[in-house]
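Can't paste images in this forum, so I'm doing it all in text. The chain is below; anyone willing to post the predicted structure tokens underneath?
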Amino acid sequence: MIWRAILLAAAVLAVAGSSCSRIERLAGPKPGANSPDALRVPAFLRAGGRSGNSGVRVTLDDSSELSGEATDRIKAREEDLMWTDPDNPEQSMEGMEEVMVDKGREGPWFVSYSKARRAAMRSGKPILVWFTDTQFSPLCRSLDSEVFSKVAFTEWAKGALVRLRLDFNVKGVSGGQGQSAMDDKIRKENYLEELKRRYKVQGFPTVLVLTPDGKVAARYRGYRKSYFDFYEGRLKNDTGKAVDLHGEWRQSMAGRGYREWVDLEGRKVFAKLTRYKSGQLILVEPDGRNIRAKESRLSDRDRAWIASERAKRGN
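Text version of the structure:
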């Protein structure tokens, strides 16, 4: 009887030990899981194919392993790229005729910063940015009546500047269900406050002269009544300075393939040719926006340039 009890106990212990061992094997790491071979990337997935010895790590966050020339080349290439739908890269791409149309205007003034910047880049004109509050600032109203609304100024500005008015007297517009006028007002106020912070505007009126590529060429804060001749003369002088600064920028961009394109209506766009096929062109602007264009709608100068480039390539 005693021997039977001993044998039974031994059998129970053996079964328990076997179960624990099995559980340990299932819960624990697989054999060799931490070994270098197990953690190694398969050869066919490594850079350079199955050899895996030709992979080069390239990072612009830490470019110490790259030469200065290589880093600049990679950065320039990244700046030139604009990814669209990879399956249809021309989807939603506007034609040259559409993008030449000025949008976002209220009379002679733009009210959209992004649209004013784009118009300035295409025309090569500096941007006059007017931060104003027509409701609460008497000086803003004086500046408008004594300078910006005068016929002499408007005639000059039409050919010399892109005008952008950022009025902090904001009114919201209801956009239907779920888009209240208050929501629209808050959205516009946030938009204006962000621009105010970006350009370090401290009060109204503040006027900036920007180069088309966005550099601040001049800044004026406040306005003294009856000094309109001095104010206008200073604006004209600083506009000329902005044109010179932008000319230097365009020269640097020309080294990367950018040039001015003109259509048959005399409208201009500053862009680089990225694709040409059977008289159809795709141009890319410095901000990355792609544009379709037809060779037949371009100026004689542009068509001659295309013919010259094709001759160089033997096609």
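Residues 18-67, 73-93 have pLDDT under 50 and may be disordered. The radius of gyration is 33 Å.
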